[in-house]
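Hi R.,

As promised on Friday, here is the backbone we talked about, encoded as structure tokens. Could you run it through your design pipeline when you get a chance and send me back a sequence?
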């Protein structure tokens, strides 16, 4: 809050929010300001390379990681013209992140049988405590899926309802304690105390899924540099998640190994400029000049290499959707995000492999501001983290009990 001498008016400063995405090839930072009316305005964004400090979601060199975080945050804050933040949320994932669906029930002990917040939390905690995976790893999220009471099923929020018993379906996301502790350590060393961690598929969904899509069944597929993460959503919540050990760098290495393009960096550039997931869209006679090598290579042959790897990845995505048991419930489409999703014609190939009529590049909604960040799949998870933080802060404010009128609040503040 600000008290201005000129006007004598008490003014409330807009909340400044910071979202981060810690990836193997990039650390992404975005700064957003909550404008009047609740609009979220993205005013700063930046990328920084961790230079090998992060591998498959795990910190392998904390000094390199901290340096990348600080570079990304400082540039995003400078662009936004901000020197403070009111909240920080960080999208994380990794090869050792796991998820499991749990179910448990309790008896409602109160005489009036009214279900309380404590009852809801107790049944979720009881389900988690009985899980072997939760005992071996650190629980990052405990996500309520659905509740049931005797005689009535599929309840979204049972609090204040009446029932003899309360049953909960819950999904937990876990990771090794050392992995999460070192991520938090890197954030602490970057002077980002109080940052909250968020599982990347949740951030992806927050960024690109409409409420209707999440309700009707949708899949987000985040194709990163080293890994692909996916989340299957139904009734507005996460029902299945998985990590696939294939990312955009595998496509690049396939090109270099099979076509000897002059190194990984050149292969990456050629992939971005000439790559496609559909060889049939490339004329058979089209060639790509390798000036450094003094020779040419068939662009269609390059596409065939990328096509083969894309088919492998998409078949693994299809298998995970099948494991969710919701393959016939996906009416909100498949949404591709991450840098690997930029491979031309990948959504068309995915339509055929996944048997889904709607496969799209995920587009961030619900924010305004820097178009080069909002429209770039590399920023999707960081933007989703900011959106989720913004929503949770608004929900907390809305639910806060009223403790007096505006005069009472002003007196307490003064």
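Update: got your reply. Pasting your designed sequence below so it's all in one thread:
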């Amino acid at each position: 809050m600000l008290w201005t001498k000129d006007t004598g008016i008490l003014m409330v400063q807009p909340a400044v929010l910071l979202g981060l995405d810690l990836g193997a090839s990039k650390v992404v930072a975005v700064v957003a300001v909550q404008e009047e009316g609740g609009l979220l305005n993205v005013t700063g964004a930046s990328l920084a390379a961790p230079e090998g400090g992060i591998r498959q979601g795990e910190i392998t060199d904390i000094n390199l990681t901290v340096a990348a975080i600080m570079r990304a945050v400082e540039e995003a804050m400078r662009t936004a013209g901000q020197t403070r933040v009111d909240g920080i949320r960080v999208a994380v994932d990794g090869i050792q992140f796991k998820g499991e669906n749990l179910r448990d029930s309790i008896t409602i002990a109160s005489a009036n049988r009214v279900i309380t917040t404590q009852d809801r939390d107790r049944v979720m905690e009881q389900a988690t405590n009985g899980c072997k995976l939760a005992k071996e790893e650190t629980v990052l999220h405990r996500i309520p899926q659905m509740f049931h009471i005797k005689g009535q099923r599929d309840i979204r929020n049972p609090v204040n309802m009446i029932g003899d018993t309360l049953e909960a379906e819950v999904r937990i996301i876990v990771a090794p304690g050392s992995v999460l502790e070192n991520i938090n350590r890197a954030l602490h060393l970057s002077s980002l105390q109080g940052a909250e961690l968020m599982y990347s598929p949740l951030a992806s969904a927050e960024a690109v899924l409409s409420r209707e899509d999440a309700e009707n069944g949708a899949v987000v597929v985040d194709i990163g540099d080293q890994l692909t993460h996916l989340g299957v959503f139904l009734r507005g919540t996460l029902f299945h998640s998985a990590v696939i050990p294939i990312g955009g760098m595998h496509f690049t290495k396939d090109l270099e190994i099979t076509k000897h393009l002059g190194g990984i960096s050149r292969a990456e550039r050629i992939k971005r400029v000439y790559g496609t997931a559909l060889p049939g869209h490339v004329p058979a006679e089209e060639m790509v000049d390798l000036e450094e090598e003094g020779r040419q290579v068939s662009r269609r042959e390059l596409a065939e290499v990328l096509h083969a790897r894309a088919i492998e990845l998409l078949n693994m995505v299809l298998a995970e959707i099948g494991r969710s048991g919701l393959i016939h419930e996906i009416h909100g489409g498949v949404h591709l995000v991450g840098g690997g999703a930029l491979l031309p014609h990948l959504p068309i190939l995915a339509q055929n492999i996944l048997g889904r009529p709607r496969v799209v590049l995920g587009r961030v909604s619900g924010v305004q501001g820097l178009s080069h960040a909002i429209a770039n799949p590399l920023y999707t998870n960081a933007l989703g983290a900011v959106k989720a933080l913004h929503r949770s802060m608004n929900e907390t404010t809305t639910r806060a009990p009223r403790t007096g009128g505006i005069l009472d609040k002003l007196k307490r503040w003064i």
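One thing I noticed while checking it: The CA atoms of residues 321 and 327 lie 6 Å apart.

Thanks again,
M.
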